[in-house]
Each structure stands twice: as C-alpha cells, then as structure tokens.
Design brief:
Layout (H helix, E strand, L loop, with lengths): L1 H6 L14 H4 L7 H4 L9 H4 L7 E8 L30 H17 L6 E6 L3 H15 L3 E7 L11 E5 L6 E5 H8 L3 E6 L3 H24 L18 E4 L17 H7 L1 H10 L12 H4 L12 H20 L2 H8 L3 H18 L6 E3 L10 H22 L8 H15 L10 H7 L6 H12 L3 H10 L1 H8 L8 H14 L4 H11 L2 H13 L17 H4 L12 H6 L3 H9 L3 E2 L7 E2 L13 E3 L6 E4 L12 H8 L6 H13 L4 H20 L5 H4 L2 H5 L15 E3 L70 H8 L19 H25 L7 E7 L6 E4 L5 E5 L3 E6 L4 E7 L8 E7 L6 E6 L3 E6 L9 E7 L13 E6 L4 E6 L3 E6 L4 E7 L6 E7 L4 E6 L4 E5 L8 E5 L6 E6 L7 E5 L3 E5 L6 E6 L4 E6 L5 E6 L4 E5 L4 E5 L13 E6 L6 E5 L3 E6 L6
Parallel strand pairs: 1-2, 1-3, 3-6, 6-7
Antiparallel strand pairs: 4-5, 7-8, 9-10, 11-12, 12-13, 14-41, 15-16, 16-17, 17-18, 19-20, 20-21, 21-22, 23-24, 24-25, 25-26, 27-28, 28-29, 29-30, 31-32, 32-33, 33-34, 35-36, 36-37, 37-38, 39-40, 40-41
Keywords: Repeat, WD repeat
GO molecular function, one term: protein-macromolecule adaptor activity
GO cellular component, one term: cytoplasm
Length: 1169
C-alpha cells in the first residue's frame, strides 16, 4: 500500500514528467531521526533505581486490645457478625487462652513474610507496657525499621484528639494512649498498622503531630532557651509508613462469613482471604462444586511454585507488582516495593485489601497515599487464574488427578511479545514488564522470557532504565551463576545492554567473577567491555552502530581474542585499568633519551601529540612519537621493553582511545580527549617536574613556544595559558621527529549573519584531530594487507544493497507540507532534466560563453555542481564556499573542520534529488557530511563524520581521497593513497567491503555502476582496474587494462547497460574500453600536461585543464571544440593555471577553478540555451 502510494503518478504531471518518478523511490541517506534530531546521551540511572537507603524491618510489636467476651461501648455489632481473629474463633475457648492463641497466630502470619524479625506481643496492654515494648524495640533496632501492629477490636474507637485506647492494670477502665507519645517511643523509621474502626483518624492525627514536632524543632533552633534546644534531635517522622483499615468516618465490615480482622487477614494471609472472597461472589456459580470449606483443602505450600497454592501465590505477587509498577510514580514504587521486603509484601497485600474492603463500603488508607487500584484490569487476570485453579480443585481432591498449571505466565509473555512487535512508536511502557521479571524464576519459561527481555532492552537506554526500575538487576546477577548453556548468549547480551547504560554495575559483575571463578562470567565481562566501546556518542546514531573508527578498526576487542582470565578480571574496574595504562610508561635505558609513555602508542609520526590536564588548563603533557618504538626488532623484545603485551586488553583499549581522539566528529574526539587527558595527568602526577619547566610559563603566556631545556632535551612538560588552543613545540631531541607548532585555522570573512561553523550541539568548536596527525599506524594491518578475519570475510559476502527508500513518515499524508515540498522538488528535477536534454540534443559546437566569474576566498581544489539548483560548491584546502552561478552571489562559506596539514580532495552531493547533503573527503581519510549549507536562515551543521580510510598518509603529491556515491543503493566507494577500495553502507552505517586493488600505486579516480555492480578504478601507475563487488575478494578483480603509461587523471564508467569505460591519463591519451573486452575499443589523443579533467555524463564532451593556462573542450571523437584562455571582461587577462574543473550533471555547463583564486562557469551559446 505504501509503495503503491509513493510510486503513483503525481497530480499535475504531464506526459513528459511521468518518466521521472524514480526520485520517489531513491533512498535518502542520513535522514533518519537520529541524524535530524539533537542527540542526547542517556542520563545516569544511579538515582532512579539503585536504593541508597535500603532498610530491613528487624522488630515487630504486636499490640492486641481484644478484651475477649466484652464488646466496646461505642460499637453496636450485628447478629450474627464477624468473629474470627487471625482465623481463630475467640468464643471457642477461654478468654485468656483465646487471646494468647490469637497472638501466636498473628505472629506466625507475619513470620511468613519476615521470619528473621524480632517479634514481641503485648496482649490487652496498659500504657506503661506499650511504652516499655516500643522503647525496647527501638533501642535494639537502632536505625532499622520497626513495625507496630495495633488491633483495637475490643476497645473504643480512636478519638479526634489523636488517641487510641488500651487498658488499666485491673481491666476496669479504658485508658487513652496519645499518638504523639507513640511517635516518641517508636521513633523513625517505623511502619504502623491500624486494624480498628475509624482508623483514618489515627493517620490524620499522626500527620498533625509530625508537623507539630517539626515546628517545635524550628522554634528551638532559633531560641536557645527553649526546652528542646538542649535535647538531642528526635528523628523525622517523614520516613514513617501507615496502613489503616478504613477512613476516619467508617466502621469495619461485620459480614459473618468474613473474619473480624479482615484488614489484617488481607495483609498477612492474602491468598486465603482472596479465595474466600472469590467464592462469596456471584461469579463463583460458574465453578460448580467449590465451597468455602473446599478452599481450605487446597494442596501445596505458599513457597512451592509447583503446587496449586504456591502457583497462586506466585501469580498474585506478579499481578500486584505489576499493578503497583504501572500506577505508582517510580520513586514511590522504589520506596514501597523495593526498599524493604516486609514493607513490599504488606503493600502488595494492601492492594488486595483495598479491592476486597471497598466491596463492603470500606476504604483502606495508607500514608503515603496510593492512587486507587481496585479497578485495575490486571485484577481480571487474577480472577481468571483463581477460576482456573478452583475449577480443578474438586477432581484434584476427590479423584487425585494431576494439577494443570495456569497459562497465566505464558499468556502474559505473549502479550509482552505483541507489544514488542506490533506496538506503535509513541506508546506507554509494557505493563507486563514486572511479570517478565517473575517469569525468570521459572525454568519452563525462562529462555523465552530472557529472549523477550533482550529484545526489549535493545530498544534503547530508556528500556534499560525501566527494566532496572522494576528490579531486574538481582535476578540477572543470580542467573549468571546458572550452568545452562542455552542461557549464556542471552545473558551476555542483556548484561552488555545494562552496562552500556549503567557502567557502575561492572564492579558488581567483577566481584561475581572473583567469587565464583566462573568462565562464563569472564566471557560476559569481556563482551561487556567490548560492547561499551560502541555507544560512544556519535553523530550517526543514538544507540551504537555508528560510522566511527570503532566499527572499522581491527583493534576492537573480540570474544575470541581473550587470552587470559586475569586480563579480563583486571579490566573490570576503572582503577585497575588506569594503573595498567600508567604502567606503560617507562624510560629506555640504552641509546638516546626516549621517554616511553602512553602517548608512545599514539599513531603520530610527524608531530607530537599534546594532552591537557583535566584539572589544570596550564599543564600540557607532550609525548614522543612512536617511531623510536619501531626500532625494536620484534614484538617480543618490544613487549619486554614496555612490560605490557601489545596484544593485551590495555593496549587495545588505549589504541581505540587514540583512534577516537582523532575522530573527525568534534564531540567524539572531545570525549576521547578527556579520557586521554585524565590518564596522562595521572601518569605525570607521581613524577617530579623539572624546575626548568616552570620558568617557561612567562614565555608561553606571551605566546612564545620554547622547547624545555635539560639533559639530552628529555623534558617534555611545558606550561601554557591555553592548553587546548596552542600545542607546544615538539622536543628538539635527535630521537624524535621535529614538527612545527600547530597553527590555528585561518579565519575568513563569513557572509553577514554567520558567526561561524557550529557543531550539532550549536556551539563553536576547534578541531582536535590536529593533535593526533594521521600517519601510518603501528597497529594497523597496513594498506598492502587485506582483512584476514573470518568475520570480515563474512561481512564482505553479506553485502545487500538497500532497495527501499528511507522515507519520512509525514510524507505519507498527501496533504502534508513535507509531501508538497517533495512534489515541488521532484517536479523541478524533472524540468531540469528535460530542458538540459533538449539543449544537448541541439548539438554543442562551442562551450566558451562565460556565465559566471568570481574570486574565491581560497585557491579552488575541488568544484561540484548541485544537480538541480543553480548552486556550485568550491572547496579550497580546508573550507567550502557556495556560489549562485545564475545570480553571481556568494551564498555561504565555512570551515570544513579538517586539520591544517590536510586538504579537501573530493566532494559529493547526497540526496541531490531531495534534501541535499554535502559530503567532503580529505586526504587524511576523514569523511564529513554537512547540512543547512547555502541556507540564509540556518548555519551549516555537521550531520556525521567518520574515518573512511584509516591508512591514509597525507601528502601533497598523492591522489588524496577519492570517492564515488551511489544514490540508488546508498553505498559510498572510497579509496585514494591506499591499496584497497572501501565500500560503506550509509543505511546500515558500517563498512561492508574492502576490495584489494592489487597494485602498488594509489587510486586516482573511482566510478561505479549500481546496475552492473561494477567499480572502475584509475591508478597512478596508469592501469585501469575493474572490480565486481558481488564476487569473492580473491576473484573480484575481473579486468585490468595497462594501456596507459602515466597517471590516470579520470576514469569514468558510463551508467547504462552497455556503457563503456572512458579513461584519460596525464599524457592526454584517451582510451575507451568495453568491460567485456580485454583491450580498448578506441584510442584518442588530446592535449598533454593535464592538471584536471572531467567527462560529461550526458553529453559527448571532455574538458581538460592544462598547465599551460588554458582549458580545452573535446567531443567524443577527440575533436577540439574550443579553447578557453582568457577571462571575459577582464581586459584580456589570461586564465591562471587550472587547478580543478567539473561538468554539470545535466546542463552543458563547465566550472573551472584556477590557481589565481578565480572560479568561472562556461556554457554553450545563448542562442542554443
């Protein structure tokens, strides 16, 4: 349906326009939400789920005021009425024995939830007995929680003055007990349970007295003469929890079939009272044969999930947990349901009490107050589970048939799966998440639950946050000890996702490794350390999968590279990692002075790397280059020299950090530099600094760099008032390479309204990659080696081109603004194609009409026409300028962000048919993608940047980096001063193929055809090589032509089924090849000494720039059409040496850039246009 709508003819199109509907089907690169919206890192979860003040209820006071046989004067009981207390009929035995039996039963009921607490009973007590009991329990409990349970069924109701009733010593009078005094004796933290009529009055009085205490303390703090000023501060009552059986104006229900202490029964025996209440409902008629007496015979134990009673208790726990998690605020849920086991059990059961007692017009009260939950939909699932269990009860008891387990958990997992697969994008969290947590306890459903849980965590950090707030951590931590092999990959994946969001948990995992010496835990920890490399904030993604060097770098740790258990365990904490990296710093004893420090593992060989102190902006640590380390004859001697294996996890992590510090995207490099700065500062902190270095501070404050003096010039620590902005001069030691001080980027005048280039965050940035010059790296495989990794080879073969357009959701609405804008752009594209083709079909006899001329801010090095707008991009060494060649106006000018020693060597328009992006490639292998260029309302913004080639050696004589873009597939071909052709998939944002060129020279030109899957490369040795990217690496080079004898300036593959290859060398010989034939099918000769050349993709034209300061245009037969030697209107001024030129993709326009800073555009005669 979607594809049919997008491919349908546009309204208002003529017959000539209908052929250009392919624009709708072209994929869009870097247009997903993560590219268009602001990227924000995940917030710390430490405060959201980890309980800092976890408590335990260690003491329980059971105060029963029953006065068996005597009814209180203010309560008129019905006949018959409820009599059971703790499921004991007090009239069935003597008053004293009944009281003791009830007290013992109540203690047993509480012990089911907290067996290790200290229990004290106070039966029909006096005020002094209550005081003694409470103060004793508080003294023993210290800072832990104490529970006070009050049953006032045998005394009058609470008073409005905040009093409950107890007895005198002779049991002849009711004595009031002030809640204020009870607060004093119980202290805090405490939990109070009131089972009596009008219990809500106690809750209100408690809050009033707590507020009164706080006011008294405020007065005492101001007035030193106040009586409370000399007393120790009492604890705050804010940490006290209250559970009351009813509101302030309500009486307890007196239904004969229910116990008198219905509230206590709900809190301490929830399954028993829930089944009894269920049987009293009208719906029980659907389950014949079930009576109140029969439910007393349900087999099993509460703690055995394999029995009917245990399964019901398990389901009840899951349902009440789910209701609370979905209804309560996260902080309140953590406090009540995760802080204390007994409190959590009481509040789960309180939800049942609310449901049951509300059916009898009685509303339980809690403090903190909970929202109503008695009508939650999950109670229907509980009724169904009870119904299924009770329907089997008669046959189980009478006939002894086997118990059929409830399908509750399987059905809830299915509901969770439906949420994962069929939910909409903006949706509420899955309400089944707490149930998934409970299912982890079941061996039957555990595998499925872990699989679904992993899929949920894969949705992003917010999903991990939700799972941790539910309480997944202890469950998954316990499962790591499991010996089930089928659970291992799922657990490793889940742990990796959790630690990618909350890295502090790695300490808990490392402790588990040390405790159990588990090989599985070791593998999990290693995988987690690897996984944590991916989520570094990248411009191309919010959840890993980025076009950063981490994906491409062969140094990324992998599971199979784990060599020892010790390394993995050591890297578990940041402290041991810091120590290990610091241990890489030694001093060479023999030969010249060489300081081996972490910076020596840098990739720099032409300039010193500089790291600023994270605490002192004036402290800069300058490292020697890596070249001296190459003197070691073998890895073994080098390992013995440094003391740490080059294959260890420490050097791998350090190597990745150095890659990231030189990342072309500023935010990534800044984060990596912070880590490197911190390590470098710690390395140097323990060493004594040479006194001479301090004397240089004044000179640096004046901006005069100076190498530190000292024996053999070993000192490399200098001070500067601006550490990040002006790196110090490198050491003048003979053991290091000399490099100039890095210059600041040249400031240029920008158009009005532009304050400078902004990073995605909106702030101006200074590129840091100049601090890590890109040179041949010691750890890289090198340009002459291909990937020998099994995973890499599999990745090459798994290449699948993107065939479905990445469409913006709003465009599905035919009346939306986005849809109409796209229709307008595609109509414009169709008009440009049609009109340009008409001009070409008329024939081109001359192409020398100068339609644009202007002076560029820098010497043009690359020029690129926009395919459909009158805009031309002109790149100089490190900046991009945009011109409107129709109006002759400068539209934009901004810095590309590449280091000073690199230059822009290629540009491509991405999504040229729609929302255009500009891709720039520099000769250090970096690729940057920009948006909002040539936009008067917005500043240029970097969409993404990554290291396209990691083995580039910047040089003024090389080809730099050459690229070719396939809009149909979203693939980017890149090569240059390397021995591979690297293919990037921008949809998946990863490298998919490295094709070895098989030559010893650089690649000077690239051209590809998506329909034939062919790549044509022109090389510096004059050869033309054809590759079929569908074939294996060893067979993909299908043709090699060696007819050129000099540098190939241009190799173009015509994009049609029978398209030929047109190549031109610097000597001016033009060769035309048929990819199916081993030799050229035509040879032409044009002018020699070429500096630039381009071939028109539509017209039969070849334009070449000569060192002799002219441009020649030839037709496809090699015949000269015209020469361009002079600028029009410049009084006969001669054109400068040609530095670059390019044809328009459709129009017969030619842009020419020269070394005299001028950029000009030529076209056919006006009468032809």
């Amino acid at each position: 349906m979607e594809s049919e709508m997008l491919q349908s003819p546009l309204l208002g199109l003529g017959e000539e326009d209908e052929a250009d509907l392919t624009d709708w089907n072209l994929p869009l690169a870097f247009m997903k939400k993560r590219h268009c919206e602001k990227i924000e890192g995940s917030k710390s979860l430490a405060q959201s789920w980890r309980m800092k003040d976890r408590m335990k209820t260690v003491s329980v006071a059971l105060v029963l005021c029953l006065n068996v046989g005597v009814d209180p004067p203010d309560v008129v009981k019905t006949t018959p009425c409820a009599r059971l207390e703790c499921w004991i009929d007090p009239l069935s035995m003597g008053p004293q024995k009944a009281l003791e039996t009830i007290g013992a039963n109540l203690q047993k009921q509480y012990e089911n939830w907290q067996p290790r607490a200290r229990y004290k009973q106070s039966l029909d007590p006096t005020v002094d007995e209550v005081k003694k009991l409470c103060t004793s329990l508080r003294r023993n409990a210290k800072e832990e929680r104490v529970l006070f349970h009050y049953n006032g069924h045998g005394v009058p109701r609470p008073t409005v003055n905040g009093e409950v009733w107890v007895f005198n010593k002779n049991y002849t009078q009711y004595i009031p007990l002030s809640i204020y005094d009870l607060q004093t004796w119980m202290g805090s933290p405490s939990i109070f349970v009131y089972d009596c009529s009008n219990a809500g009055l106690i809750v209100k009085s408690f809050k009033q007295f707590a507020l009164q205490r706080e006011q008294e303390l405020e007065v005492a703090a101001i007035n030193p003469n106040h009586p409370l000023a000399q007393m120790p501060l009492p604890p705050s009552m804010k940490n006290c929890i209250q559970l009351a059986a009813c509101e302030a104006t309500e009486l307890l229900p007196m239904i004969p079939d229910l116990p008198a202490d219905l509230f206590t029964s709900c809190l301490t025996t929830p399954i028993k009272i829930a089944l009894r209440w269920f049987c009293m409902q009208k719906c029980v008629s659907l389950v014949p044969g079930v009576t109140l007496d029969l439910i007393e015979k349900i087999p099993g134990r509460l703690n055995d999930r394999r029995t009917p009673l245990g399964e019901l208790n398990w389901i009840f726990t899951a349902i009440t947990d789910t209701i609370a998690w979905n209804v309560l605020p996260r902080d309140l849920f953590q406090k009540l349901f995760r802080q204390d086991l007994l409190v959590a059990s009481l509040f789960r059961n309180f939800l049942l009490a609310e449901r049951i007692m509300r059916s009898y017009n009685c509303t339980p009260v809690s403090s903190p107050r909970l929202p109503p939950t008695y009508m939650h939909a999950m109670w229907q699932a509980w009724d169904l589970a009870v119904d299924i269990c009770l329907s089997q009860l008669p046959t189980i008891i009478e006939e002894g048939t086997a118990f059929r387990h409830s399908p509750f958990f399987a059905e809830q997992l299915t509901a969770f799966q439906v949420w994962l697969t069929m939910g909409v994008e903006n949706r509420n969290p899955p309400e089944q998440l707490p149930i998934v947590l409970q299912v982890l306890l079941s061996q039957v459903h555990r595998l499925r639950a872990l699989d679904l849980l992993g899929r949920f965590l894969d949705l992003g950090p917010w999903a991990v946050s939700l799972a941790l707030s539910v309480g997944i951590f202890p469950y998954v931590l316990k499962l790591l000890q499991s010996s089930a092999r089928e659970l291992r990959p799922l657990l490793v994946f889940i742990w990796a996702k959790i630690l990618a969001v909350d890295s502090e948990l790695v300490v808990a995992l490392s402790h588990l490794v040390v405790q159990y010496e588990s090989n599985f835990c070791t593998v999990a920890l290693q995988f987690i350390e690897e996984e944590k490399n991916y989520p570094l904030p990248s411009p191309a993604t919010t959840e890993g999968g980025s076009l950063t060097p981490v994906r491409d770098s062969p140094c990324t740790p992998r599971l199979r590279s784990v060599s020892s258990y010790g390394n993995i365990r050591a890297v578990a904490t940041a402290r041991s990692l810091n120590k290990s990296l610091q241990n890489l710093s030694l001093t060479e004893e023999s030969g010249g002075a060489v300081a081996f420090s972490p910076g020596n593992l840098s990739t720099s060989s032409s300039a010193s790397s500089t790291l600023g102190s994270p605490e002192n902006e004036e402290h800069i640590l300058s490292f020697e280059t890596i070249d001296k380390m190459r003197r070691a004859s073998s890895y073994s001697s080098l390992n013995s020299l440094i003391g740490v294996s080059f294959n260890s996890v420490y050097t791998q992590i350090w190597r990745v950090l150095l890659h990231l510090a030189a990342d072309p995207y500023p935010e990534v490099s800044d984060l990596a530099m912070k880590v490197l700065n911190s390590i470098a500062y710690k390395v140097r902190a323990g060493r004594s600094l040479p006194r001479c270095s301090f004397r240089l501070r004044d000179r640096y404050s004046r901006g005069e760099p100076q190498a530190c003096p000292g024996p053999h010039h070993e000192c490399s620590v200098c001070f500067s008032p601006n550490a990040r902005g002006s790196p110090p001069a490198s050491s003048t030691s003979s053991s290091s390479l000399t490099s100039d001080v890095a210059k600041q980027p040249v400031s240029r005048d920008l158009p009005s309204g532009r304050s400078g280039t902004t990073a995605p965050g909106g702030a101006q940035y200074t590129p840091h990659s100049h601090q890590f010059p890109r040179t041949r790296k010691m750890f890289d495989k090198g340009p002459d080696q291909t990937a020998d990794d099994a995973d890499d080879a599999a990745g090459h073969k798994s290449f699948v081109s993107a065939a479905v357009a990445d469409r913006i959701p709003e465009e599905h609405d035919l009346e939306s603004q986005i849809r109409k804008e796209r229709e307008w752009r595609f109509l414009r594209n169709s008009r440009v194609r049609r009109q340009a083709q008409q001009v070409i079909q008329k024939g081109i006899t001359r192409l020398d009409d100068q339609i644009f001329l202007n002076r560029n801010p820098g010497v043009p090095s690359v020029v690129k026409f926009h395919p459909f707008t009158p805009c031309i991009a002109v790149a100089d060494k490190d900046s991009i300028c945009f011109w409107d060649w129709e109006k002759g106006e400068k539209l934009d000018y901004f810095h590309n962000g590449n280091p000073r020693y690199t230059r822009v060597t290629a540009m491509e328009y991405l999504n040229g048919q729609d929302c255009s992006l500009l891709l720039t490639a520099t000769d250090d292998g970096a690729i940057r993608v920009w948006k909002n260029f040539a936009d008067l309302e917005k500043n240029p913004e970097m969409v993404t940047a990554w290291q396209g080639l990691s083995d580039m050696l910047p040089t003024t004589r090389g080809a730099g980096m050459v690229v070719d873009w396939e809009q149909e597939t979203g693939l980017l071909m890149s090569s240059g001063d390397v021995r591979i052709v690297r293919i990037w998939d921008t949809d998946r944002e990863m490298k998919v193929q490295d094709i070895p060129t098989g030559a010893d020279s650089c690649v000077t030109s690239l051209s590809c055809d998506s329909h034939r899957s062919l790549i044509v490369a022109g090389l510096g040795d004059g050869s033309i090589r054809v590759y079929d990217r569908r074939m294996a690496l060893s067979e993909c080079r299908v043709m090699t032509y060696r007819e050129h004898t000099a540098w190939v300036v241009k190799a173009s593959l015509q994009k049609r089924p029978d398209g030929h290859i047109v190549s031109v060398s610097v000597n001016g010989d033009v060769r035309i090849f048929d990819p199916r034939m081993p030799e050229s099918v035509n040879v032409l000769q044009i002018v020699k000494g070429l500096t630039a050349l381009d071939i028109h993709p539509q017209a039969d034209l070849i334009a070449c720039g000569s060192v002799n300061q002219f441009t020649a245009i030839y037709n496809g037969n090699g015949e000269l059409i015209n020469n361009i030697k002079y600028y029009d209107g410049f009084m006969g001024q001669r054109v400068g040496a040609i530095s670059c030129l390019a044809f328009h993709p459709h129009w017969p326009h030619l842009a020419v850039g020269s070394n005299d800073y001028y950029i000009s555009v030529y076209s056919v005669e006006k009468r032809v246009r």
